[in-house]
């Protein structure tokens, strides 16, 4: 019976984490370039249940007892959220009419797990990656994210625009003050190595030998930049609401199971074992 408590409780905790992930997706459904998190559930290892007994064999000395185990079957001990994986599918493109807004549109990607990103500078000075092209120009004329992170060029340097009067070509070259600066567009052949780092940014956590490449130098990779446009979040709000209701029902079911076990335990302790 105690195992039942743990199984029901693990189900409740898993659905609570699922609900948190879905709520976060819904809250960011209007955030440009946001990638929805997908929770993956996994069961704890199954246990093989056996009935332990003994069999008496008559002997001249009076008898011999041998241990005998009888298989009853397997039992699952619960479930947990193994990980939350971002869905890197491209969101819809919408026009904003704002010069500093840019949408990164996927072209040809040689690997199904590949992805393209804008390159920005993190607060620690290291490179971060984003699909959110909702940029602006700071007081010193540098192109930044709305959070103040510098947008980097193909050489890893911040981009000076001199103001809001600039143009971005389809191949990602920013033209301002008579100068042409290629935007830092990066490519990875495995987006699963990208980990969310807050502020709609990603950091690369690939193994040794893996790297984020300059998209212009990557074989077979094509893309385009649309100025005055933004990539919308890829959250499907209707589907997310359905999943939230389903997760709530599953939480409620596990809660009822836990309550039933509690009532059974109450009877076992306070009624069945009562001395009359």
Automatic annotation (TrEMBL):
<dbReference type="InterPro" id="IPR010930">
    <property type="entry name" value="Flg_bb/hook_C_dom"/>
</dbReference>
<dbReference type="Pfam" id="PF00460">
    <property type="entry name" value="Flg_bb_rod"/>
</dbReference>
<keyword id="KW-0975">Bacterial flagellum</keyword>
<dbReference type="Pfam" id="PF06429">
    <property type="entry name" value="Flg_bbr_C"/>
</dbReference>
<dbReference type="InterPro" id="IPR037925">
    <property type="entry name" value="FlgE/F/G-like"/>
</dbReference>
<keyword id="KW-0969">Cilium</keyword>
<dbReference type="InterPro" id="IPR020013">
    <property type="entry name" value="Flagellar_FlgE/F/G"/>
</dbReference>
<feature type="domain" description="Flagellar basal-body/hook protein C-terminal">
    <location>
        <begin position="226"/>
        <end position="270"/>
    </location>
</feature>
<feature type="domain" description="Flagellar basal body rod protein N-terminal">
    <location>
        <begin position="5"/>
        <end position="35"/>
    </location>
</feature>
<dbReference type="Pfam" id="PF22692">
    <property type="entry name" value="LlgE_F_G_D1"/>
</dbReference>
<dbReference type="InterPro" id="IPR001444">
    <property type="entry name" value="Flag_bb_rod_N"/>
</dbReference>
<keyword id="KW-0282">Flagellum</keyword>
<feature type="domain" description="Flagellar hook protein FlgE/F/G-like D1">
    <location>
        <begin position="115"/>
        <end position="175"/>
    </location>
</feature>
<dbReference type="InterPro" id="IPR053967">
    <property type="entry name" value="LlgE_F_G-like_D1"/>
</dbReference>
<keyword id="KW-0966">Cell projection</keyword>
<protein>
    <submittedName>
        <fullName>Flagellar hook-basal body complex protein FlhO</fullName>
    </submittedName>
</protein>
<comment type="similarity">
    <text>Belongs to the flagella basal body rod proteins family.</text>
</comment>
